[in-house]
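Ticket closed. Logging final result for DPY30 domain-containing protein 2.
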Amino acid sequence: METAYLKKCFGNSLTQALAEVARVRPSDPIEYLAHWLYHYRDVTNAKEKEKQEELQLKEEYDKSLQEVKMTEMRKQEEYQTQQKCEKCHQVGGKNEAEVPGILKAPSTGQSTPRPPWACFSLTVAR
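Final structure:
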């Protein structure tokens, strides 16, 4: 039971610390051991914090890549939509009466182009 507790709390650090005390043979081994363990804890905490920051940076980087990809897809869709709309609005030498979408205003008889949203048909899924 005590062994499991010590392994859980200290892991391999206590073994390393005692080996260091035996190697250095300081005049006050208890104080040396205490400082070594505090330093070990600080280094371990710093490494864990660095690992968390790296993970967060990677997540942010992946998210920004996805946003860039979505932006490029939107730009491509917008370009394709614009091309379709321009193609739809080109009269190309045809008489206005022959082009569907050129509407005659009833009161004035002048032609008015159809609105850009009229170029596309919507399908509704049921």
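The longest helix spans residues 29-89. No further action required.
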